[in-house]
Amino acid sequence: MEVVILPGSRQIGRMAADAVEALVRRKPDAVLGLATGSSPLPIYDELALRHEDRGLDFGRAHGFALDEYVGLPAGHPQSYREVIRKEFTDRVNIAPENVHSPDGTAADLPAACQYYEDAIKERGGIDLQILGVGTDGHIGFNEPGSSFASRTRIKTLIEQTRRDNARFFSSLADVPHHVITQGLGTIMDARHVVLVATGAQKAQAVRDFVEGPVAAICAASILQFHPHATILLDEAAASSLRLADYYRHAYDNKPDWQGL
Ligand code: GLP
Question: Domains in the chain, start-ordered, CATH in brackets?
Answer without folding.
Answer: 2-252 (3.40.50.1360)
